[in-house]
């Protein structure tokens, strides 16, 4: 199974490569290079604040070992971000093969290009990661509760019934 730290490192590596690529610079009319750098910076800050890039006992995987639902949601968000970065790379490769920079059409106000849509989705995904960080800091240990049986509560039913009724 893939770990959070592996996904974060992969996303940061891909993001760094894409921001440094000349293909992205050719599309500054659609989304400025500074906006891409801002999102990469937000991802780095999120990773550093939450410790998502660390390994071992300080890793996010270790801290979320008893909260698998939070861990799986974080992994889903990071996999989605990785997919978006892969999509961006493919779009940039297709655009550099098909068109020269002079032939790039800027869309009307209502139309968004594929690159603009990918940027919007990346912004939303990183926003969701920031929202998850509040949950990550105080995870409920639901996995531990899932292992309890109804038999564990049997001795207390009499007292609970007396208290309620």
UniProtKB/TrEMBL annotation:
InterPro entries: HeLo_sf. This is Prion-inhibition and propagation HeLo domain-containing protein. Gene3D superfamilies: Prion-inhibition and propagation, HeLo domain (1.20.120.1020). PANTHER family: C2H2-TYPE DOMAIN-CONTAINING PROTEIN (PTHR35391:SF7), C2H2-TYPE DOMAIN-CONTAINING PROTEIN-RELATED (PTHR35391). It comes from Penicillium antarcticum.
């Amino acid at each position: 199974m893939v770990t959070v730290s592996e996904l974060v490192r992969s996303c940061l590596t891909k993001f760094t490569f894409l921001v440094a690529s000349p293909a992205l610079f050719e599309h500054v009319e659609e989304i400025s290079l500074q906006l891409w750098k801002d999102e990469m910076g937000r991802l780095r800050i999120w990773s550093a604040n939450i410790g998502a890039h660390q390994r071992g006992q300080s890793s996010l995987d270790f801290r979320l070992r008893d909260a698998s639902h939070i861990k799986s949601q974080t992994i889903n968000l990071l996999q989605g971000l990785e997919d978006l970065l892969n999509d961006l790379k493919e779009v940039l490769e297709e655009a550099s093969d098909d068109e020269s920079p002079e032939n790039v059409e800027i869309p009307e106000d209502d139309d968004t290009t594929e690159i603009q849509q990918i940027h919007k989705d990346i912004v939303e995904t990183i926003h969701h990661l920031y929202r998850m960080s509040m949950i990550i800091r105080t995870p409920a240990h639901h996995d531990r509760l899932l292992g309890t049986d109804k038999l564990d509560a049997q001795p207390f039913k009499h007292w609970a019934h007396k208290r309620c009724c």
